[in-house]
Amino acid sequence: MAVSEMLKLRVISHKSVKDEIVDSLLRMGIVEFVDLPSVLSEKIQDLSLYREGDGKAISEVETFLNDLRLAIDFLESANENKRGLIDSLLGERICVSRVELEEKVKRVSYKNIVEEIRSIERKLADLKIRKAQLLSDRDLLESWKELDIPLEFFEEGTLKTAGLIGSLKLEEFERFSKDLGENLSLWQMFPLPSSPGERAFALVYLKEEAEKLQAILRGYGFNAFTVPKRKGTPKEAIKDIEEDILELERERESILARLKEYLVFLNDMKIIYDYISIALAKQKATSNFLATSKAFMFEGWVRKKDREKVEGLFSRYEGLIAYSFEEPSFQDDVPVVVENHPVIRPFEVLTSLYGLPLYGKDIDPTPYLAPFFFVFFGMCLSDAGYGLVMTLLITWFLLKYGVRMSFSVKRFLSLLLLGSISTIIFGALQGTWFDGLFDQVSWLKPLGSVLNKVKLIDPLEDPMRFLGISLALGIIHIFLGVVLKAYVNIKQGNLKDAIYDQIGWLWFLSSLLFFGGVNAGWIYTSLYRFSQVMVLLSAVFLILTQGRGEKNPLKRVVKGVLSLYGVTGYLSDVLSYSRILALSLGSAVIAMIVNMLAKMVSNVPIVGIIVALVILIVGHSLSLLVNALGAFVHSTRLQYVEFFSKFYSGGGKAFEPFAIKTRFTDIVD
Questions:
Q1: Cα(438)–Cα(496) distance, rounded to whole angstroms?
Q2: Is the pLDDT of residue 516 over 90?
Q3: Greatest CA separation found in the chain?
Q4: Per-residue pLDDT, 178
Q5: How many angstroms separate the CA atoms of 288 and 310, rounded?
Q6: Beta-carbon neighbour count of residue 172 at 10 Å?
Q7: How confident is the model at residue 35, as a pLDDT?
Q8: For residue 45, is pLDDT > 60?
Q9: What 3-state class would DSSP assign to 34?
């Protein structure tokens, strides 16, 4: 249960075995390559080395792979045998052997297929744009259909006359009409349907008076309409547009029929996509190598436990390869792998969300946060009925779809499953099964009385006791964080820091708690004087050590005294755990309200029972979603803010070995 130990691997080998070594490392998936050309950028020319691989070729393959992916997505969108939502999200894996994989690539002219599908996609997109424009023109002309003037007139006019269409604000229109009458000798206006607050119209005028009209229009907020480039009156143009739309639909159906002919290649394209992805991964991997005309070299990271596997591979090429393993140096950016017991592994989700440990500086916090998250989640959601529903749903989902899930999705669902089990435990201890629903339904009361026998505490009846338990757990949680920081300091050789900063504060905080317990009568009052002395001695210890970085003795003491103010930070952290009570009460109250509403309507004749069932199902479902989210978020926050802040920095880089990664297929030997 720790960060896996890593080794730096250095390899120099003859080029004749490069492809074999790369293929073997790809299948093994245990080495992460370092970008050696970048690391040795200043020495490459002096050593007559060059970067292996072709950057231009890699870029071209990436471009084609993107086109292939888009073609697959587009082809799937045309598939009439569409899968359900869950199947679409999880995907359907295709089992294929390496031999079949290579045969598909040789047999299927995939480049032509991709080109044709992308061409069809572009044509359909063009049809969609054209149809949208036609619909827009039709909608506009629908409002002008009473206008008995050919549309081309507003574009070309006649020998003597011209026209325009537009709108003015309602308050300007009367003044505009008056200006037209005073300045133009001949004009005709045709009113059109208008938006609220505006007046739309078509205007016919003499061409020789066009400049006068423009001068008038400049004095108003005239909004000129774009007239569709159509022949005939609006009514005639609408008819033409509808015929054009029908023609576009026929063209679209024809193109879709052509597209569906390519559905038989869908699985082949997916297989080819993964084949090219693997080939691209190999190209990118070798671009991390340095080479001469006859040899190549690379560096990488490997887990210490995989050393024998690497040595076993390289032993096949004795005389053609030289390699070494080294311990990481302090300057190395070492990738991180955390390894935990299968029961603890789901909690790695929380560590990954925050940031992996820094190699050589952090410890893996997963095994330490796991029991606390488990307890906090259950206490926050605190309804055994909700926990039971979640457990059944998640278990069913994992059994049905687990094989097709990615590792990260399965791990997250496993975390929620553990949280659900915790909710059953702590909900049962609090006697909450859909917040007493079993006690309110007559035929379920015997079951409710049996379940209530394990009840130990009810937050609604005894909130202060529940709050005390929450705060006590918070104190233990925070103290563990300080202890872990002391452990990290001792491990790194910083014994003084561990004693002065962590052990000193643990002594002081423990003394304050002990003193408070004596004053409250929880501990023998005869120890009152002893508790005072412990507080005083621990405070003096902090005063003398917290300012040790200052050379001036006075500054050292002042800084030490001011450091005691840090106790308020610890107090604030402890009080944060009161959110457990708040969330537990919130979950109970919402469930109680749902039950009350259902009970109120259940006595209504005929429909009462049906409505009550709907309220119970919908209400408790929403309550479960909201409260489960709250339990997850706040339990996680207690880890990140109150716990991690005491000892953990994070920011490590995940170990990403060179391995076969496929999107659609499972490759079997």
A1: 59
A2: no
A3: 116
A4: 92
A5: 18
A6: 16
A7: 87
A8: no
A9: coil
- Are 657 and 288 within 8 A, CB to CB? no
| DSSP-based three-state secondary structure for 302 | strand
398 three-state secondary structure: helix
**What pLDDT, on a 0 to 100 scale, did the predictor assign at position 312?**
94
Tokens 């709250």, located at residue: 630
How many whole angstroms separate alpha carbon 285 and alpha carbon 278? 10
Burial of 32 (0-12, 13-18, 19+ CB in 10 A): buried
The DSSP secondary structure of 209-225, one letter per residue, reads GHHHHHHHHTTTT-EEP
Instruction: Output the DSSP codes for 346-395.
Output: GGHHHHHHH-BPPTTT----HHHHHHHHHHHHHHHH--HHHHHHHHHHHH
Q: Give the per-residue pLDDT at 88.
A: 59
Alpha-carbon Rg for the chain in angstroms: 38
CA–CA distance, 381 with 371 (Å, rounded to integer): 16
Q: Average the pLDDT over each of 107-111, 289-293, 466-470 and give the range with the smallest value.
A: 107-111
Binning pLDDT at 50, 70 and 90, where does residue 141 land?
very high
> Distance (Å, rounded) from C-alpha 287 to C-alpha 215?
69
- In sequence order, the β-bridge partners of residue 187 are 205
pTM, two decimal places: 0.81
- Asked if 336 contacts 3 with a C-beta cutoff of 8 angstroms, the reply is yes
Other beta carbons less than 10 A from residue 77's beta carbon: 10
Contacts of 532 (CB under 8 A, 6+ apart): 515
Distance in angstroms (rounded) separating the CA atoms of residues 360 and 191: 81
pLDDT of residue 47: 58
Q: Which of the four pLDDT bands, split at 50, 70 and 90, describes residue 393?
A: very high
Domains defined for the chain, CATH in brackets: 2-52+288-335 (3.30.70.120), 152-227 (3.30.70.2750), 345-644 (no CATH)
pLDDT grade for 43, boundaries at 50, 70 and 90? low
Answer yes or no: are the C-beta atoms of 462 and 416 closer than 8 Å. Answer: no
Between strands 665-668 and 94-97, the pairing is parallel
Residue 229: CB atoms within 10 A of its CB come to 10
Whether residue 1 is predicted with pLDDT greater than 60 in this model: the reply is: no
From the centroid of its chain, how far is CA 384?
Answer: 29
Q: What does each C-alpha distance from 64 to 3, 282, 536 come to in angstroms? A: 39, 16, 73
With contact defined as beta carbons under 8 Å apart, do 248 and 127 qualify? yes
- Which among 17, 25, 3, 660 has a CA at the least distance from the CA of 300? 25
User: Residue 561 contacts by C-beta under 8 Å, 6 or more apart in sequence?
Assistant: 543
